[in-house]
Amino acid sequence: MHQKNFTFHSALPKADDQDGFIDLDRLMAVVTRRIRTILAGVALFVALAVAYLVTAPSSYTSATQILLDETMTKYAEDQPPAASSQQADMEIASAVEILKSNEMALRVVDAAGLLNNDAILNPPQSPVALIKSGVKSIASAFKPAKPPLTPEEAREAQRQQIAATLQDALKVERVTRSSVVSVSFDSTDPQLAAKVTAAYADAYLTDQLNANFDATERASVWLQERLNDLRQRSQQASLEVEKYKADNGLTQTGGELMSEQQISDLNKQLIIAQADTASASARYNQYKSIIDQGPDNAVKNATISSSQTDNSVLQDLKTRYLQVQKREQDVTQNFGADHPQAVALKAEREDITRQIYQELQQLTASYKNELDVAQSRAVSLRESIEGVVGKNSEANKSLVHLNELNQKATALKTLYESYLSRYEEASQQRSFPIAKARVISAAGVPTAPSAPKKTLALALSVVLGLMAGGAFAALQEFRDRYFRVEGDVRAALGLKFLGYLPLLGQQSLDRKKGRKRKAGAAPATAEDAENGVAFERIMRVSVEAPRSIFAETLRNAKLASDVMLQGRADRVIGVVSALPGEGKSTTAANFAALLASSGKRTLLIDADLRNPGLSRMLKSPPQTGLIEAVLGEVPWASAVRVDPRTKLAILPVVLRDHLLHTSELLSSQGMMNLMENARKMFDYVVVDLAPLGPVIDAKAFAPQVDAFLFVAEWGATPTNLVRDILEQEPQISSRILGVILNKTDMSELSRYSDFGGTERYRQKYTSYYTEERPKAEIDA
User: Fold this and answer.
1) Under a CB-based contact definition with an 8 Å cutoff, are residues 544 and 660 in contact?
2) Which residues form the Tyrosine-protein kinase G-rich domain (predicted)?
3) Measuring CA to CA, which residue among 308, 315, 314 is closest to residue 370?
């Protein structure tokens, strides 16, 4: 298979481009040649935008702003900790969704009295809305009928419909990163827009109050139920504690069990008894040691502190004993031991000593009794403690469960007190009519419509028109797979390019009207019918306008033949094309006329036996021609006509209905003989052959041709078709002098050329083509 290369005149870079991704010169060339398509797209969309602006009803927007302020209730209730930014965002997003909700819309419908509002039920509709409405009506006609609604159901359905309409026209959004929520509503009635927007703000604030009151009310009811339950459970737990104490003898005084208090008291008493016993034992032992010394030494050797006894008699005796002893010493020193007074004092001293001794004996016996009592009391207390401790060990086992009961009762009491406090707070908060939001921008009546936005709509239409026109232009550009410039010929075929043949007057008119030129047209003047062999003027452009680009291209073709067929005295040149209607007959006639006018003996043969367009352009129909000459019915020279002006010999064709195998006729011996004779008489033989695409006549005649001129219609002949045909016919492609692009629109040519291409400088060549154009050529 042969690889197909498409020629796109686009701004995308070719494989050998090194300048960048996008060729700006090509892009500008594309825009220039497709500017009409782009402008048509812009004009279409602008017209649609104008039609929309004219028919679309005006819409008015009223807006209000609500500030979500948590500090509104700072004097009414305890403030919670400051919320994080994420929590604040969640609260604002929740407020936005609440405002958009169906429940809020229903409240607005009821509060604003919109149930029978005609501006909402039957608003002015744009053409698009009318089309949608019509489609829905048609679709509903094919749906099964529903049972009729009751008045209540119909009213509720209408209410829901109006609420849905409000939701569609409502716009709620957060204002930047603040705590402000903007609420706007669109309507064809400005008064209605302001009314609905204000109703939404009021409904939201009322909803906040109702929500707070309902939440507090529900909390109060729930807390009341919980309080009743906790009260009963707390009382029951306290009763269980008391009952358990009573059942287990766990009587308490001062917060302690009786047994524990008894042990504590007995221990205290035991300590005191032990202290008393020790004190009594010390006193007893002290007095006993004094008595054991005897009467004489009891007073002399023992010192009895006044703090150890309360016996005043003993103290008095001690005092008398010291006084008597002193007086006795004084008398003895002065008068001697035998003095009667000294003897009397001695007797008195001994009597006091006896009395002291007796007193000490009585005290010793008394302390002995105290010691016995203290010891008996200590023993008794120890026994009592041991008994109580035994009983308390049993009570301690029951005390564990008692502690559990006490903890339960205490916990229930604490919980009850906590719920009671919360219940009182909730009861107080129900009376606070404060919402955590306020309106900071009231809804006003709009004075100018907000939609449709004329400037934006027109600007958008221009942008969309540019995009659509550009897209369609790009599609046209990518689908442009035809020969446009010299580079297309070299890139697609690798052949020499001979030049452009401009689009002539009638061809231009036919192209604009979208039709091909009809053959056999009547002569324009009486001069055209002279001798019955004259061409139409369009077939003599190269002769009548020798300094035109048309003639210059054919001279280039002659030069190419001179170079390629150098050294040959006779030359047979075939003129071929890929498709019918590409102007090869016109090219062949003008090429032959140019050769003849230069003094060369030239024969023009119409070898297109299926569609002899060249023969049809003769002013008078021929009676004999090529077919008769080849078949030997007439001498070939008798069938030749001569143009008196250019001296061009013409061998036409007379169509025969029964002629089927034209290719065999062209490759027959008779045709070979005719061509051999023609070579002897003429310097150039120009043969107008059938197109290569539909028939094989040119292929059959190819062995008798020295070189070919290939004619392609500018902007109409697909490059792929020509390439494929020539690749399949190497006996023709190898002998092609070059390619001529016919019917070229010279005014459009420069738009398809790359930067630096010769086509861009065509205007600079006009000074070389100054000769007046022929009458047959009419500007497009």
Assistant:
1) no
2) 405-477
3) 308
Give tens-digit pLDDT for 465-504. Answer: 999 988 888 887 777 788 888 888 988 898 999 999 988 7
Predicted confidence (pLDDT) per residue in 394-442, tens digit: 666 666 777 787 888 888 888 878 877 877 776 766 555 667 788 888 8
DSSP states along 131-195: HHHHHHHHHHHTSPPPPPPPHHHHHHHHHHHHHHHHHHHEEEEE-TTSSEEEEEEEESSHHHHHH
Residue 7 near residue 712, CB atoms below 8 Å: no
Scanning the structure block, which residue is given the tokens 């064809």? 188
Structural contact between residues 715 and 749, judged by C-beta atoms closer than 8 angstroms: no
| Residue 82: partners with Cβ closer than 8 Å, 6 or more residues away | none
- Asked if residues 760 and 750 have their Cβ atoms less than 8 Å apart, the reply is yes
Q: Looking at this protein, which amino acid is placed at residue 515?
A: R
Q: Is the N-terminal amide bond of 621 cis, ω within 30° of 0?
A: no
User: In whole angstroms, what is the distance from residue 516 CA to residue 523 CA?
Assistant: 18
Helix, strand, coil: what percent of the chain each, to 5? Answer: 60, 10, 30
State both tokens at 691. Answer: 């197109």
Residue that is written with structure tokens 């902007």 in the block:
715
Instruction: Of 447, 502, 373, give the one whose Cα is nearest residue 194.
Output: 447
Most distant pair of Cα atoms in the chain: their distance: 228
What is residue 321's three-state secondary structure? helix
- Residues 108/166, Cβ–Cβ less than 8 Å: yes
The pLDDT tens digits of the residues spanning 508-536 come to 545 544 544 443 333 333 333 343 355 66
**Kindly report the CA angle at 499 between 494 and 500, in degrees rounded to 5?**
120
H/E stretch holding 642 = strand 641-642
CB atoms within 10 A of CB 171: 14
Question: What φ, ψ does residue 640 adopt, rounded to 5°?
Answer: -80, 135
pTM score of the predicted model: 0.55
Distances (CA, A) of 412 to 224, 230, 255, 418: 15, 7, 20, 10
